[in-house]
Design goal:
The protein is α+β, with helices and mostly antiparallel strands. Helix content is 25%, strand content 39%.
Length: 161
Amino acid sequence: MNTPSPEAARPPLPPFTQESARQKVRAAEDAWNTRDAQRVAMAYTPDSRWRNRAEIFQGREAIQSFLERKWAKEKEYRLIKELWAVNENRIAVRFAYEWQDEAGQWFRAYGNENWEFDAAGFMAVRHASINDLAIQPEERKFHWPQGRRPDDHPSLSELGL
């Protein structure tokens, strides 16, 4: 198994309930919407293993570097995550995010993630499958100011995504 993280625990902790898993998913969404690569990377174990699209890498430094590259490319990034399934120390989520490239083209990325957590609540494994769809500006659904999604903004299910 993965080396336990030496930092203080990151609640909620496994084994997860439906409610604590929803809290974990929302905390991850909120962190990713900050686009602060260092902050996001600290939610993972020091030796966390990732598969993101076709990239496979390991460790917080690699995660932070990946996120810095990602958010340099993906302008106007806004993300919604939704709990799909939970079992003990594993959570499955589905997500969608909208972003704009340097040429001004808008995209909506759809995906699924499988997460595995250590006992202290740090993510030890993340597998992400993601597809991008080019959209027109009038097709956008995520219009809040960059940062945390407002509590009253519709979820993926409410948006029909």
